[in-house]
């Protein structure tokens, strides 16, 4: 009897590990879009080629980001509620995944001056990417137990950053030959190939709670009910408010780091590649490490630590990006090193620090949300999680882009990011941390 029980336990563990691996493959897949379009190649291509290097390019980019996030923020809670009711997470995820892949591939046809077309394609691709995450994230409570949420969420983000490195490696020959446009359909193809296993091997229950088919009405009613009874979820509401601010900072860094390095520091494509390799590599380590910290010591402590590191990173980025300020002047004098070169090299340190907490902050937030969320309404609440994350991404990049445009100085705009992290950290003080579960 004991032997049979042990065999069953081993089968269950192996099946869970298999589900987790397949789930993380989707993270591997979708970061091909994130690194190529959002963070690096298309972001720089849009500023330097499409908008021809004009300062207003940052503002246009922020408008595209904000519109896509606004639409995603509006539809996410409704779609989440519908998916909960109809048990259709996988179908919604498939639709938005294909929307992102097709729009990304069509970026190949964008050239100089095609600002409107570029923004439309970027907006639809980003909606597909961001809305899809609502349904992808909601699979987390189904593939593992609560005691492992932090680790598994961290594995997902770590796998995503591995995907980014693989994508960069594949894109490198194209970049060296100045074939930037060719990397856009390449990213779409990688996304398609590695997303397929989730849709084949991870099942989504199709049970329905009644015969009513007006899913849109059901979605609105369930969201309205959740909002009405939000007072019953005070801790969750406080966490979402904190999340709204600090994820604003993370999103802005993701959307503008490539533009910042190329515009303010005049990084070449080769230097940008080195910079993003540093970011992605440290992000892999950070995602796993902070996942372990979250499961062992609590999600809140893990988040607080990551936000403190973010604040330090922003300060270093602000001071190091101007070789004429007193800090860089003093350091270059002490180290007997050229101030301009020191400024450029210091940004690699910024990449190292930002990478160590970029995935960690998002991963720990996702695992904390999983612990705070009622299981029977997981997709609906992840819809609200997405709503707060995406609506915050409307403001952060828009503020950065507008301040950059007004001052013609991205260095001044970077201080707005630090303000978002600071407010989020302050509100997080009032969130009660779910008790850490000791793993055997």
Descriptive report:
The protein contains 16 helices and no strands. The protein has a single domain (22-202, 231-428), classed as MFS general substrate transporter like domains (Growth Hormone, Chain: A), CATH 1.20.1250. The chain is mostly helical and 440 residues long. The longest helix has 38 residues, at 2-39.
The main pleated sheet reads as: none
Strand content: under 5%
Separation of termini? 23 Å
The number of domains is: 1
Rounded average pLDDT = 83
Order of helices and strands: HHHHHHHHHHHHHHHH
Silhouette: globular
The CATH homologous superfamily: MFS general substrate transporter like domains
Compute the number of strand runs.
Answer: 0
Report the CATH C-level class.
Answer: Mainly Alpha
Q: Please state the second-level CATH architecture.
A: Up-down Bundle
Oligomer: single chain
């Amino acid at each position: 009897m004991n032997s049979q029980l042990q065999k069953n336990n081993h089968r269950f563990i192996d099946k869970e590990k298999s589900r987790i691996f397949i789930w993380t493959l989707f993270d591997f897949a979708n970061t091909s879009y994130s690194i190529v379009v959002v963070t690096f190649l298309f972001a720089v291509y849009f500023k330097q080629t499409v908008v021809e290097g004009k300062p207003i390019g940052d503002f246009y980019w922020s408008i595209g980001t904000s519109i896509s996030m606004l639409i995603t923020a509006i539809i996410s809670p409704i779609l989440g509620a519908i998916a909960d009711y109809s048990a259709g997470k996988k179908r919604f995820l498939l639709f938005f995944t294909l929307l992102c892949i097709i729009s990304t591939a069509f970026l190949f046809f964008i050239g100089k001056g095609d600002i409107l077309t570029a923004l439309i394609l970027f907006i639809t691709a980003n909606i597909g990417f961001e809305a899809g995450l609502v349904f992808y994230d909601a699979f987390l409570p189904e593939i593992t137990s609560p005691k492992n949420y932090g680790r598994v969420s961290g594995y997902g983000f770590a796998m995503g950053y591995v995907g980014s490195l693989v994508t960069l490696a594949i894109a490198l020959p194209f970049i060296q030959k100045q074939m930037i446009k060719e990397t856009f359909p390449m990213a779409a193809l990688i996304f398609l190939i590695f997303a397929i296993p989730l849709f084949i091997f991870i099942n989504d229950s199709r049970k329905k709670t009644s015969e009513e088919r007006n899913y849109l009405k059901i979605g609105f009613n369930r969201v309205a009910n959740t909002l009405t009874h939000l007072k019953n979820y005070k801790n969750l509401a406080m966490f979402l408010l904190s999340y709204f601010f600090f994820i604003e900072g993370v999103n802005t860094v993701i959307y503008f780091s490539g533009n910042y390095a190329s515009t303010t520091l005049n990084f070449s494509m080769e230097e940008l590649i080195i910079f993003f390799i540093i970011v992605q590599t440290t992000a892999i380590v950070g995602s796993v490490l902070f996942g372990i910290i979250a499961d062992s010591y609590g999600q809140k402590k893990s988040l607080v630590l990551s936000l403190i590191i973010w604040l330090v990173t922003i300060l270093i980025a602000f001071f190091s990006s101007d070789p004429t300020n007193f800090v860089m002047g003093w350091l270059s004098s002490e180290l007997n090193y050229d101030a301009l070169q020191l400024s450029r090299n210091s940004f690699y340190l910024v990449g190292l620090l930002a990478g160590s907490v970029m995935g960690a902050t998002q991963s720990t937030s996702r695992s904390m949300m999983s612990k705070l969320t009622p299981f029977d309404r997981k997709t609906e609440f992840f819809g609200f999680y997405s709503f707060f994350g995406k609506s915050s991404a409307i403001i952060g990049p828009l503020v950065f882009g507008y301040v950059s445009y007004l001052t013609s100085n991205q260095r001044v705009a970077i201080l707005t990011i630090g303000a978002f992290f600071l407010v989020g950290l302050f509100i997080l003080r009032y969130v009660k941390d779910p008790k850490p579960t000791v793993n055997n």
